[in-house]
Specification:
With 386 residues, this protein is an alpha/beta fold. Helix content is 36%, strand content 12%. It has eleven helices and twelve strands. The strands form three sheets. The chain has a seven-stranded mixed β-sheet with strand order 1-9-8-5-4-2-3, sandwiched between helices. A three-stranded antiparallel β-sheet has the order 10-11-12. Strands 6-7 form a two-stranded antiparallel sheet. Helix 6 links the parallel strand 4 and strand 5. The longest helix has 32 residues. The two termini are 21 Å apart.
Length: 386
């Protein structure tokens, strides 16, 4: 039996919501998107929510709307999916990669401070695996340096920072609802924020810059084909179909949280005494974990990955540091913790369809890998409380 690394968990409830959209007959930016945004506004304690068609486009839409442009610099971890950097460079600005802390793989705030220049206009923290970055330090930099803080919370829907839900405070937060995220719309994303002026601008820009309320008329409903285009815009709006899926997922989210935490607990308990790997420092009681990442020490990562695949277990590497890619490569740039992490990190299977037995099998195969290593590892026992 093969165990997949990741998969979306959609079912009959999502099909029923989509069927209702089909029966209504309109699939673009419509009432289901409004419903999804209102549900998310309730979830984020009344903050504004603008739904879009991907997490990547959420980031780009925000950066464009806060006037990040050519000549500006944006500090961002190198250890992230390439989408984070692509959203920055799409504005013409320069992504400035920073290092991470080895125990959490979150952005290293000391390195962030070293890299602030007069050209720095924003910081994009990445809440890796669902764990939040140091928001106190980041919001202090916003205050003292006049920087914008645009959170890449693609992994962190439902996570908390010091008792506050990610997205319910701070400057601007961007979420992804792609097929493998904590909740899925199939594809989708959202921007969460407090500023009323930004709300109007984002809504225009996500839909080709169109403003249907700018024309002077007393019979707008009869003349809804009229619009003005006052700003540069993009085709970034969410569709009714994707919003319908998201609405069904929100109703299941509490069960997703429980399952993700349970899977993490089994992994933690089963692997905690294995000295040839390192577990990340994660507080599973306050976050909704999106990944389960281990660090495989002493050069064994690739061999372990191959061994697990031979035994029907799919794994992954999250992520290739962006400063390794030819488009973003910078001469003489050194991010030692990021580069060391890339040699060691391994993402284990993690999704809500996994059973406890699946997780125990993954753990058992990891122990079997070390039993077959040469030279033989020290004898280690495994006791699981299941």
């Amino acid at each position: 039996m093969n165990i997949r690394l990741a998969r979306g968990c959609l079912g009959e409830e999502e099909l029923a919501e989509v069927r209702a959209v089909f029966e209504y007959g309109y699939f673009g930016l419509g009432s289901k998107v409004d419903d999804f945004e209102r549900a998310l506004e309730d979830y984020f304690l009344g903050r504004h929510v603008v739904a879009v068609n991907s997490g990547t486009n959420a980031l780009h839409l925000v950066l464009d709307s806060i006037d990040i442009k050519v000549g500006d610099e944006v500090i961002v971890p190198s250890l992230t999916f390439i989408a984070t950097h692509q959203a920055i460079s799409a504005t013409g600005a320069k992504p400035v990669p920073c290092d991470v802390y080895p125990g959490t793989l979150l952005m290293n705030m000391e390195d962030v401070k070293r890299k602030i220049t007069p050209q720095t206009k924003a910081i994009v923290p990445v809440h890796y695996g669902g764990s939040p970055c140091d928001m106190d330090a980041l919001l202090l930099l916003k205050k003292t340096h006049g920087l914008r803080i645009v959170e890449d919370a693609a992994h962190a829907f439902g996570s908390y920072y010091k008792g506050q839900k990610i997205g319910s405070f701070g400057d601007i937060t961007c979420f992804s609802f792609g097929s493998l995220k904590n909740i899925s719309c199939g594809e989708g994303g959202a921007v969460v924020f407090a500023n009323e002026e930004l709300n109007g601008l984002l809504r225009k820009k996500r839909n080709l810059g169109m403003d249907r309320k700018s024309q002077s008329t007393t019979s707008w409903k009869e003349r809804s084909w009229l619009y003005d285009v006052p700003v540069q815009g993009f085709r970034y709006h969410m569709s009714n179909i994707n919003a319908a899926i998201g609405l069904a997922q929100l109703k299941k989210f509490e069960s997703f949280i429980s399952r993700r935490r349970r899977i993490s607990e089994i992994y933690q308990e089963g692997l905690k005494d294995l000295t040839r790997i390192r577990l990340l420092n994660v507080d599973f009681d306050t976050i909704v974990p999106h990944l389960f990442v281990i660090r495989v020490l002493n050069g064994y990562r690739d061999s372990m990955m191959e061994f697990l695949m031979e035994n029907g277990i799919e794994t992954g590497i999250n992520y290739i540091p962006t400063h390794f890619h030819s488009f973003y490569k910078t001469e003489a740039l050194s991010l030692p913790e990021t580069e060391q992490a890339f040699e060691e990190i391994l993402s284990l299977p993690f999704h809500c369809a996994l059973t406890d037995e699946d997780i125990l099998r993954v753990i058992r195969i990891i122990f079997n890998f070390y039993d077959n290593c040469s030279p033989s590892p020290q004898s280690e026992s495994i006791t699981l409380n299941t």
